Amino acid sequence: MTATIPGKVAVIYYSQSKVRNTATVAQWIAKHTGGTLIELEMAEPYPEPYSATLKAVGKDFRAGILPALKNMPNLDGYDVVFLGSPIWYGTYALPVGTFLKGNPLAGKVVAPFCTHGGGGAGRFAADVRQACPKAKVLDELVIRGSNQIERRMGLGVSVRHTENDVVEWLNRIFNQ
For a designed S-S bond to 82, which of 11, 116, 149, 169 qualifies (C-beta 3.0 to 4.6 A apart)? Predict the structure, then answer.
């Protein structure tokens, strides 16, 4: 059983990889909260292949460039915002930074979640709190994204994240 979420829910996320780890977690959250699923999309996507993406992202991080988004969600009427991102350079992805710059989520309850490939969440939670000083930011959910990939490929992993991890997190953060 999933905890009752107080108010109208938006599940906003950015997912760069072709395997869509962050998108998978966002879909699980939307399923168990009844939230509106909103994907952040860049106006000009980073180049492929992944090595070119990494090079472009690194350049933007060093220069402090936030990419333009195709869509800037209107959050009027939403009370709870689940905010998801892959971890890039120890924090949220640059498109999420663009979103937060335009939407500091004042007065909202924010539940951050992230995926990573093994490097951990870094400053993710602290950076979300800093970007949303007038929001109530709950404890984050951290999912090792490569577990999603390996499971989809039928490979065994030592730590397996599942949809149940989302349910447990929801129950923990909304039953405090």
Answer: 11
For residue 25, what are its two tokens? 């977690």
- Asked if residue 77 lies in contact with residue 108, where contact means CB atoms within 8 angstroms, the answer is no
Number of structural domains found in the chain: 1
- List, in sequence order, the alpha helices (H) in the chain: 21-33, 50-63, 94-102, 124-131, 145-152, 163-174
C-alpha closest to that of 35 among 94, 77, 93:
77
The CATH number covering residue 31 comes to: 3.40.50.360
The answer to whether residue 1 is domain-embedded is no
- What pLDDT is recorded for position 50? 79
| pTM summary value | 0.90
β-strands 136-137, 91-92 pairing: unpaired
Mean per-residue pLDDT for 139-159? Answer: 65
Domain range for residue 103? Answer: 9-174
For residue 34, with 0-12 CB atoms within 10 Å meaning exposed, 13-18 middle and 19 or more buried, which class applies? Answer: exposed
Question: What is the C-alpha separation between 85 and 64, in angstroms, rounded?
Answer: 18
- Exposure of 102 by Cβ count < 10 A (0-12 exposed, 13-18 middle, 19+ buried)? exposed
Residue 27 lies in a domain: yes
